[in-house]
Amino acid sequence: MIPELGQIFLVAALASALLQFVGGISPLMRKIENIEPFIERITMFQTMSLLICFALLTTSFLQDDFSVLYVASNSNTALPIGYKFAAVWGGHEGSLLLWVLILSIWTLLLSKDNALKSSPELRIQSLSILGLISLGFLVFILYTSNPFERLFPIPLQGRGLNPLLQDPALVIHPPTLYAGYVGLAVPFSLAVSSLLTANNFEWAKHARSWTILSWMFLTGGIALGSWWAYYELGWGGWWFWDPVENASLMPWLIATALMHSLIVTEKRGLFNGFSTLLAITAFSLSLLGTFLVRSGVLISVHSFASDPQRGLFILVLLAFFSGSALMIYSLKQKKATQEKLHPLSRESLLLLNNVFLCASAGLVLIGTIYPLILEMLDLGKISVGPPYFNFVILFPFIPLLITIGVAVFSNWSHASKSLVKKIFPIIMIAILLSLLFPFIYGLASLMTMVGVILALWTILTGISPLIRNQFSINKSMVYMPMMLGHIGLGLMILGITVTSSYGITFDDSMGIEQSSNVGDYEFKLTEIGRRNGPNYLAQYASIEISKDGEYIETVYPEKRVYDSSTMGMTEAGIEANLFRDLFIAIGEDIGGGSWSMHLQYKPLLRLIWYGPIVMMMGGLIRVFLSKRSIGSYQ
Amino acid sequence: MTRRLLPLIIFFVLMAFLAQSLFDSDSELPSPLIGKSIPEFSLENLLTQEIHSEEDIIGEISLVNVWATWCVGCEIEHEFLVELSQDESIDLPIIGLNWKDDDQLAKLWLNHLGDPYSIVLKDPEGKTAIDFGVYGAPETFLIDSDGIIHFKHIGPLDREIFERDILPVVGELN
User: Fold this and answer.
1) How are the residues of chain A apportioned to helix, strand and coil, as percentages rounded to the nearest 5?
2) Model confidence at A297: pLDDT above 80
3) How many CB atoms neighbour CB A86 within 10 A?
């Protein structure tokens, strides 16, 4: 009964999405008085229907109702209850349901945005476009990916959740990332609506907070995914340039550019076309990401069992939404008024950096789809891999980081007179501080020094408004979002540089009571044993870590085999503080009581995840805390 | 107008590629290197640190397999390579060319997944791979006892491809 109710509410959501679309788009409807409250109610109804669908699907999971195909494929009775919740979005059908649910929540929130009520045309139009997007995905769900489909005969046991997904971080990673992906639909719909209605830069004012909000979710989602990969995949890496990782990085880069471009559009009325294009691109890349994950055209750790029909459907949706948006853009976008920009004004520097951000996204895109192009020319399936990405990403990123710091000191419309005088001391301090690093960690290459200097430069220029205001938090509050954003980025770059240059990776075979040294740290294997988890069997090791004979901590890395799968899972043993990560993963039993072990010492690794947290705090302050005072940021 | 159409044009080219990739076909283009000798090289052995040149792998029919730990396709074909190296009925040494990789990770990989290679050469800069005309990993070359390349496969190797494309050529060469 429950799955059938789910079906009904899914259809109800579809009907309301259709009404939401038609209500806004049709000139006839627009003449009807009180269309606004009607659309508001429809939006609310759609969200409620989808929430009920989601709750019903969750109920089926909690009841172990294996007569539902999706439940039988993604859960079993042994699955711990927490993961039964997570299993709801553990597969294709459920994650699409989550996708439209989040879209409807964003739509509902947009309909409640009071500032937007001052532009009723823009408001109704963008809600209508969001309704159309929702409609497209609901048809997709009902047509190819219905989570409520029944299975007969009813199996006694389900297949279980993919062991890779049985992890606390993975419970929140997909919803966070989806919230970011889907949130970009809001600036997209505002940009396209603006082209269709007033066609001015009014939309930029409304789109900014929504962009920042989605950007925060994207930042958090990507950082969570990276953290998970680090401790779960057993290789101790934190970024693999996997196609699906790239699919989340590209919208992030474009959303970052959009966030900054919107400042200029809002404040100065410039770059309206560029902002519009960025808003369209950001959401298109979200859809492209969905396509890459769901169609299985690329081989990746994220590829689930895929179905060409589904891939085709998403491709059609992508072609339709982005294609028509770009078509509207090319027909409607007004010619920009030619305004002479001073090369060192804030708007020029922001534009320059947005170009670098777009170039980064472009290079990542080329690397990601290059294998597809080769495949199309019948050259087979290949991976481009980190050597390409690690190398090419430096070209836009080095000038980007240089410009970020200069832009902080720039003024609108003209060059700051004492720009050089302001910048010079900071460069000197950054260089002096960077000299500490060879002292602490040992000599390094020129590229490492460049990375460290640029990171420090970004952090110091980020802090500078606080120094200029005599450390008064109150006075610097208007700069706080920028400051935290830039400091967070600097910290992340510092972490990446130091950990990649000074990190030590080491493999050793270890027997009981034997130890292995990595840098200054000693790892001693004291015990190997077995233990039973709720739905897995684990082989664990207990490892004592000490430095200069002084005991620090005992960690317990594990290798797990889940009942439902033959795939082994690695749970690394990690001892971490702000300054360094010590990592150990169990390899193979090489006989004679010895095990191969993978050991790592990674200095400043945590900054790679703390940096994004700081960045997100900046966004949070901008969106929620003091909208009024920050509104005047100049 | 043309400038504003540019994003749309780029977008539709991209769409065409993506659509095509959904319905990919299976025929292979011949490599320009087929019928030519393998390039000269001087590379260190990943495991023993010995220096090898092309002379060391000429002399018997063998496979040269380009792989890396960061390559997902390599992980897929690895199981088959291990199977192949343990198959007594097929005497075909596999020479591994570890491409643009991290030594430690590569050793860990071989520890974890098994080592099918008679020699593992490392090419951290990817210079020899360029001489081989490698686009990406994985790629596999069949060379004869004179060091002439007879077949090249791009992408993960599996039993089906091996039996269809490589085994008959090995038979002819013998």
Assistant:
1) 65, 15, 25
2) no
3) 25
Pick A70 or A476 by higher pLDDT.
Answer: A70
Give the residue on B whose Cα is nearest the Cα of A504: B104
Task: Provide the residue ranges of all domains of chain B, joining segments of one domain with +.
Answer: 35-173
**Which residues of A are less than 8 Å from B8 in CB distance?**
323, 326-327, 329-330
Buried b (16+ CB within 10 A) or exposed e, B60-94: ebbbbbbbbbbbbbbbbbbebbbebbeeeeeebbb
Least confident among A58-62, A465-469, B131-135, B150-154: B131-135
Which residues have CB under 8 Å from A155's CB, separation 6+?
A66, A72
Q: With H, G, I as helix, E, B as strand and everything else as coil, classify residue A509.
A: strand
Partnered with residue B4 across adjacent β-strands are: none
B residues 117-146 lying closer than 8 A (beta carbon) to A: 126, 135-139
Taking each continuous run of H as one helix and of E as one strand, the counts in chain A are 23, 10
CA A450/CA A431 separation, integer angstroms:
9
Q: Are A285 and A250 spatial neighbours (Cβ–Cβ below 8 Å)?
A: yes
Q: Do B15 and A507 touch (CB under 8 A)?
A: no
Interstrand relation of A558-562 and B139-143 (parallel, antiparallel or unpaired): unpaired
> With contacts defined as CB-CB under 8 Å, which chain A residues touch B113?
none
Through-space distance between the first and last CA atoms of chain B, rounded to whole angstroms: 64
Cross-strand partners of A580: A603
Pairing type for strands A504-511 and A594-603 reads antiparallel
Q: Which of A280, A385, A506 lies at the smallest CB-CB distance from B68?
A: A385
Q: How many CA atoms lie within 13 A of A129 on its CB side?
A: 27
Exposure class string for A14-32: b at 16+ Cβ within 10 A, else e = bbbbbbbbbbbbeeebbee
CATH of domain B35-173: 3.40.30.10
Instruction: Inspect the interface and report whether the beta carbons of A507 and B104 lie closer than 8 Å.
Output: yes
Token representation of residue A521: 């740290």
Residue A218 CB partners (closer than 8 Å, separation 6+)? A177, A180, A181, A183, A184, A248, A251, A252, A255
Instruction: Find, among A75, A61, A72, A79, the residue nearest to A533 by Cα.
Output: A79
Closest-CA distance of chain B to residue A53, Å: 31
User: What one-letter code names the amino acid at A6?
Assistant: G
What are the start-end ranges of the H helices in A63-117? Answer: 69-74, 81-87, 92-111
Terminal alpha carbon distance of chain A: 58
> Tokens 């670098």, residue?
A356
* Interface-testing mutation among A366, A383, A500, A583, with chain B (most B C-beta atoms within 10 A): A383
Percentage, residues of chain A above pLDDT 70: 91
ipTM summary value: 0.74
B62-67 and B94-99 as β-strands: parallel, antiparallel, unpaired?
parallel
> Domain extents for chain A?
1-166, 167-401, 402-502+607-630, 504-603
In sign, the C-alpha dihedral spanning A436, A437, A439, A443 is negative
User: Does B79 lie at the interface with A, CB-CB under 8 angstroms?
Assistant: no
SS3 A591: strand
B28 pLDDT higher than 50 = no
Strand order in the sheet with B51-53: B51-53, B42-45, B119-123, B94-99, B62-67, B139-143, B149-154
List, for residues A166-176, the tens digit of each pLDDT value.
888 778 888 99
Residues of A in contact with B28 (CB under 8 A): 378-380
Contacts of A322 (CB under 8 A, 6+ apart): A280, A283, A284, A287, B11
